[in-house]
Design brief:
- The complex is a heterodimer of chains A (448) and B (536).
- Chain A is α/β, with parallel strands linked by helices.
- Helices cover 37% and strands 15% of the residues of chain A.
- Chain A folds into two domains: 70-81 and 349-442, Aspartate Aminotransferase, domain 1, CATH 3.90.1150.10; 84-343, Type I PLP-dependent aspartate aminotransferase-like (Major domain) (Aspartate Aminotransferase, domain 2), CATH 3.40.640.
- Chain A contains 14 helices and 17 strands.
- In chain A, the strands form five sheets. Chain A has a seven-stranded mixed β-sheet, sandwiched between helices. In chain A, strands 13-14-17-16 form a four-stranded antiparallel β-sheet, with helices on one face.
- In chain A, a hairpin with a 4-residue loop joins β16 (413-414) and β17.
- By secondary structure, chain B is of the alpha/beta class.
- Among the domains of chain B are: 1-66, no CATH class; 393-521, Aspartate Aminotransferase, domain 1 (Alpha-Beta Complex).
- Helices cover 37% and strands 9% of the residues of chain B.
- Chain B has 18 helices and twelve strands.
- Chain B starts with 52 loop residues before the first helix and ends with a helix.
- Classes of the chains: A alpha/beta (448), B alpha/beta (536).
- At the A-B interface, α1, α2, α3, α4 and α5 of A face α1, α2, α3, α4 and α5 of B.
Chain lengths: 448, 536
């Protein structure tokens, strides 16, 4: 059994077996009932050498099998720029190969950056506190729904706007169904949350929480003025799912009066990697700190009087509270939180703003050019959008997108029979924008 | 390490006007965010740091020096399976062609990624002895929750006699928030049986899933009290949705009556859930499916070598027995010709040589469950699949036996100084109940902290809860005899120090960047951001 990850020599094995008082490693499984023993070889491929392994994956990443498209798609996953230092630093094995920082004395690296991460997320969202991160934006939103439900005394439901990403809503639906939270959908009207419908639901009382998204699924920046007061009047909590990269510019969930801010942190420089890993963030007001799920790092002192950091408020968590815990989560998305932390440290105050500004300018430039072709109409003409927007196309949208794909462009995401949603980040050059418009403009409809 | 820099927060290294980035300047500036109504813009810029690139690089490099990873030294953290994280897997996961894939790009443009996804599903099914896997859950606890949702969805479907086939086969996921509520009826099976020795995540996941936890007692040796289980099933068998088990259990002991247990629960109409936390012990020797388990999760970051990353990202695939596939969450990655069962096609797919559309993404499931926006942590799956391919069938089978040998060797060699509460074979980990000699007042906590001084990560302490001074050691299959012997020597040295100089041990650690931390202070007046620390 000589293999690069198994260090024991035959001599080692014999000596260890002797100490254990057995003659074969299989004897160590003598307590397993015979009917439960696995007595054949696994039907798996033969071991690949490192050379063959590389070849195998190179074949899988051949352009035919993994086409690198110039990305104008968003819908929750964005092709933002990440400085090279980020990828390099997160590969440091002291970060990469460590466990959850239970032993604070030898985990200050992790604890320290999580404290920085929490500070940055709190600042970006305009909230008082943040946890150490959750799995992704969708589950973070579901956790927020459960938080609202557990916080409410006599509530009958949680309201979710139809303008929240349907993929996120599906996860919230799933969690709510099993957790026993009745959900009420607030319909969209002209691409934004219907205020009339929301006000009506709120006036009927019994609302544990309201979940909104900013910018919403269609890229529109919604005006939430007055919503927080109305929700708080019902003793409910306001949850805003926000895109953090846009928060360099946009009014923060804190400024809107939200009690909980959640979202997907992938837009903060994390590679798309087919949708994961990203990182879910959650920030909230201080009064909800003991209701918040997930790990939290706090500042304290050590026995030598030095400032240091430690996992704190663990009395909320599953390993102590078991079924009474605020959540079942027992980790965070730590390395991705480090990714975000280093990204925000390098980009800083100005860089994040500049990237957001470029994304906004690029999206609006693309939009102007698409409308100028005469082939597209804005789906929601009077709504302000950030770096993502929807256009309607009267022809065969699938064929149009397929042609763009053939030309090496991911033209966006189809969000309706006629509706295409496009996103622009600071990575898209003016030439790429120009060329995409050209492809879409020149596309000839096949005759039926 | 630069002590001056260490201790600073990145915010304290910031100076107005510094830049750590460069972005292109030639873009169409026709539009700017100033167009947005003021009411939609933030009033003040976010107080993010302003640092030059080198300052950032040094800061995080210095921080890394205050961490301890598997690459730094022996990490015998029980129940966490801190095995070696092969470097080649990192290289593969970082390949630009994977990193640049958008999750919503057409299936025909990302067959390579879908192939990895599909083949990993199939490999896990073979290793687990189950039928199908979803890779969507992001972590072990997430997998547990997903598995329990699958179980509830199954019972709800079974309990609803009126359910119509056409309703079950909705092609599109729900448009309205209430669609799940209308698809399922309620099931009376709302209880989940969990051994009292289980990890806290089990009951917590059950509670999140809306299930009521009923504890099953353990015997003196830590295994399930089958008589108590029988009594519970007699009392409430028709309300039991499932029983959750870890095997080997949290004490590292194989449950000898597992076949009897799974049979009893099945007869009562419940399903058996396998918590894959300790699966590493069994690779090569037994499979959860063969023991009668119906649903399970696997921690790819434990058994399949992906790095823990300081607490994530992990991956918690969920597998099910035949007949439960339709309750797995969407999206699903499927093979086009799967239904035909064409072996030739499967071979073609495995070689990735064909450019025809083989793998597709399906949203069609009878129960519209979803546990994440996309496909889970794909970057982690790449590493796990690379690991399986590196080992191949001829090496995977040695993982469990070697890990188990290492644990039993430690058990035999440490039992003179450390109290072994349970005789007999252990599996991949061994639990001691503190030092044999309790007269010195040196606790498990003290032993753990003293180990840090000697350059080892501490074992898991005060878990399992069955013993007061639990010290749980899991060596994994990757550690050499020399490493293990050196660790054993240090453990003996600490036991000797506990007698000769107990204060030295009680005040440890002494050689670490910081001393013992004040947990009480942290929890009493929580300071969880830099901004809050400025007020303090």
């Amino acid at each position: 059994m000589q293999f690069k990850y198994f260090p024991h020599t035959e001599e080692d094995l014999q000596e260890m077996l002797r100490v254990c008082g057995v003659s074969s490693v299989h004897d160590l499984f003598a307590d397993v009932p015979e009917a439960a023993r696995f007595r054949r070889d696994y039907e798996l491929p033969q071991a690949l050498s490192e050379t063959d392994l590389r070849l195998f994956f190179e074949q899988l990443t051949h352009p035919l099998n993994a086409q690198q498209l110039i990305c104008f798609a968003g819908a929750g996953c964005y092709d933002h720029y990440a400085p090279s230092v980020v990828q390099n630093l997160i590969q440091r094995s002291e970060f990469l190969t460590s466990y959850t920082p239970y032993q604070a004395e030898i985990s200050q690296g992790t604890l320290h950056y999580i404290f920085e991460y929490q500070s940055m997320i709190a600042e970006l969202t305009g909230m008082e506190i943040s946890n150490a991160s959750l799995y992704d934006g969708a589950t973070a939103t579901a956790e927020a729904a459960m938080m609202a439900w557990s916080n409410a005394k006599k509530a009958t439901r949680v309201l979710v706007s139809e303008t929240v990403d349907p993929k996120v809503r599906r996860v919230v639906d799933t969690y709510a169904h099993f957790h026993g939270i009745p959900l009420q959908l607030i319909p969209a009207e002209n691409g934004v949350t219907s205020r009339a419908a929301l006000d009506k639901e709120l006036s009927e009382g019994g609302v544990a929480g309201v979940i909104l998204q900013q910018p919403n699924y269609f890229g529109i920046v919604e005006d939430f003025t007055g919503i927080a007061d109305a929700v708080h009047g019902q003793k409910g909590i306001l949850v805003i799912n926000a895109n953090p990269s846009d928060l360099a510019i946009l009014k923060t969930p804190g400024e809107w009066g939200a009690d909980v801010a959640v979202g997907e942190g992938q837009s903060l420089g994390i590679p798309m990697t087919f949708g994961g890993p990203g990182v879910g963030f959650m920030a909230c007001s201080e009064k909800l700190i003991r209701k918040m799920p997930g790990r939290i790092v706090g500042q304290t002192l050590d026995s030598r009087g030095q400032r240091c950091f430690v996992l704190t408020l663990q009395a909320r968590e599953q390993h102590i509270r078991r079924q009474k815990a605020t959540s079942n989560i027992c980790s965070n998305q730590s390395l991705m939180a480090l990714y975000v932390t280093i990204y925000l440290a390098v980009m800083g105050k100005e860089g994040l703003r500049e990237a957001a500004e470029m994304s906004y300018a690029g999206a609006h430039s693309l939009c102007d050019k698409l409308l100028a072709t005469g082939k597209f109409r804005l789906t929601y003409p009077d709504q302000p959008f950030f770096n993502e927007f929807c256009v309607d196309y009267d022809g065969d949208l699938d064929a149009l997108m397929a042609e763009a794909t053939e030309c090496g462009y991911l033209a966006g995401v189809k969000v309706g029979e006629k509706t295409l949603m496009l996103a622009v980040t600071e990575q898209r050059t003016p030439e790429e924008i120009e060329e995409l418009v050209e492809i879409l403009k020149e596309h000839k409809e096949a005759r039926a | 390490m630069n002590r001056t820099l260490y201790g600073n927060l990145i915010f304290e290294l910031s100076k107005k006007g510094r830049r750590g980035y460069s972005l292109p300047q030639d873009y169409d500036r026709t539009h700017s965010t100033a167009e947005l109504p003021e009411a939609l813009r933030r009033s003040e810029a976010a107080r993010l740091p302003e640092c030059d690139e080198l300052t950032v690089v040094r800061h995080y490099t210095n921080l890394s020096h205050n961490n301890f990873g598997v690459n730094d030294g022996f990490y015998p953290l029980g129940s966490c399976t801190m095995k070696y994280n092969p470097i080649i897997n990192e290289e593969i996961a970082a390949m630009k062609a994977f990193a640049g894939l958008h999750p919503l790009q057409p299936a025909e443009t990302c067959q390579g990624a879908l192939e990895v996804y599909y083949n990993l599903q199939q490999s896990l099914a073979e290793l687990a002895g189950l039928s199908e896997f979803t890779l969507n859950p992001c972590a072990g606890a997430h997998g547990e929750l997903t598995g329990l949702m699958v179980i509830r969805a199954y019972h709800e479907a079974m309990g609803n006699k009126k359910i119509r086939n056409e309703e079950m086969k909705k092609d599109e996921a729900p448009a309205s928030s209430n669609s799940l509520n209308s698809t399922f009826s309620n099931s009376q099976r709302t209880k989940v049986l969990i051994p009292d020795s289980a990890h806290g995540t089990n009951p917590a996941s059950a509670a999140v899933c809306g299930l009521e936890v009923v504890e099953v007692k353990s015997l003196q040796d830590g295994t399930v009290d089958v008589d108590h289980l029988r009594q519970l099933l007699d009392e409430m068998g028709d309300q039991v949705a499932a029983m959750m088990m870890t095997n080997p259990n949290t004490l590292g002991i194989f449950e000898p009556r597992v076949l009897e247990i799974t049979d009893m629960v099945h007869k009562a109409g419940g399903l058996m859930y396998y918590d894959g936390a300790n699966l590493n012990a069994l690779l090569g020797e037994c499979r959860p499916g063969d023991m009668g388990f119906d649903v399970m999760h696997i921690n790819l970051h434990k058994t399949f070598s992906t790095p823990h990353g300081g607490g994530g990202p992990g991956s918690g695939p969920v597998g099910v027995r035949k007949g439960l596939e339709q309750f797995l969450p969407t999206p699903r990655v499927v093979m086009e010709n799967e239904k035909i069962g064409n072996e030739e096609n499967k071979k073609d797919a495995a070689s990735a040589s064909s450019n025809s559309l083989i793998f597709t993404i399906s949203h069609s499931q009878s129960a519209p469950l979803s546990v994440g926006s996309f496909f889970g942590n794909f970057g982690v799956m790449l590493k796990a699949y690379a690991y399986i391919l590196s080992l191949g069938h001829e090496n995977v089978k040695h993982v469990g036996p070697l890990a188990t040998l290492n644990a039993n060797y430690i058990k035999e060699r440490l039992r003179d100084d450390y109290l072994l509460p349970i005789e007999g074979l252990c599996k991949h980990e061994v639990v001691f109940d503190g030092l044999v000699d309790k007269s010195t007042g040196v606790t498990t906590m003290d032993v753990a902290k003293r180990l840090l001084d000697y350059g080892y990560h501490a074992p898991t302490i005060y878990f399992p809860l069955l013993f007061h001074e639990s010290l749980m050691i899991e060596p994994t299959e990757n550690e050499s005899k020399e490493t293990i012997d050196a660790f054993i020597d240090v453990m003996h040295t600490i036991a000797a120090e506990a007698k000769s100089d107990p204060e030295l041990v009680k005040t440890a650690p002494h050689n670490t960047p910081i001393g013992r931390v004040d947990d009480v202070l942290a929890a009493k007046h929580p300071i969880t951001t830099y901004w809050k620390s400025l007020e303090a």
